[in-house]
């Protein structure tokens, strides 16, 4: 595993997403209770970008289909419940999922030292 410096510590803030490129992939960084969390910028639902996702209380919501995830564990909390930010009735959620089962975010191991953020990459 390699470790790559990806950001200055001050660039990663609570309640915000910070995008970086690592090995040809976009990774999103955020801070939860002071801890830096890192995950793939692609929603596991259909691979659309989470970069404009809404961050709230340690979670990120996909702006496209409303799937919601824990920022640090990657755990799926809600699966495909809206379209372009418009909530949909519960009966339609199965249709919005396109037959895909709920899946977690792909995480990256992040560390912080000397005012910089590092990611471990294969």
Overview of this protein structure:
- This protein is mainly beta and 122 residues long.
- Helices cover 3% and strands 45% of the residues.
- The chain has one domain: 3-layer Sandwich (Rieske Iron-sulfur Protein).
- The strands form three sheets. It has a six-stranded antiparallel β-sheet with strand order 1-12-11-4-3-2, with no helix packed on it. A four-stranded antiparallel β-sheet has the order 5-6-7-8, with no helix packed on it.
- A hairpin with a 2-residue loop joins strand 9 and strand 10.
- The protein is elongated.
- The relative contact order is 0.24.
Keywords:
mainly beta; Rieske Iron-sulfur Protein; 6-stranded antiparallel β-sheet; 45% strand; elongated; iron; Rieske_2Fe-2S_sf; 2Fe-2S
Beta-strand share of residues: over 45%
**Helical stretch count?**
1
Strand count: 12
Helix and strand string, N-terminal first? EEEEEEEEEEHEE
Shape: elongated
Largest sheet: 6 strands, antiparallel
Q: What is the CATH H-level superfamily?
A: Rieske [2Fe-2S] iron-sulphur domain
């Amino acid at each position: 595993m390699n470790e790559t410096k990806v950001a200055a510590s001050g660039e990663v803030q609570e309640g915000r997403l910070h995008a970086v490129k690592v090995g040809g992939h976009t990774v999103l960084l955020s801070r939860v209770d002071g801890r830096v969390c890192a995950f793939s910028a692609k929603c596991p639902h259909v691979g659309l970008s989470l970069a404009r996702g809404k961050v709230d209380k340690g979670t990120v919501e996909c702006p496209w289909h409303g799937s919601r995830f824990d920022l640090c564990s990657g755990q799926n909390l809600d699966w495909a419940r809206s379209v372009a930010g418009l909530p949909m009735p519960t009966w339609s959620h199965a249709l919005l999922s396109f037959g895909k089962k709920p899946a977690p975010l792909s995480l990256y191991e992040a560390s912080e030292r000397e005012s910089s953020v590092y990611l471990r990459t294969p």
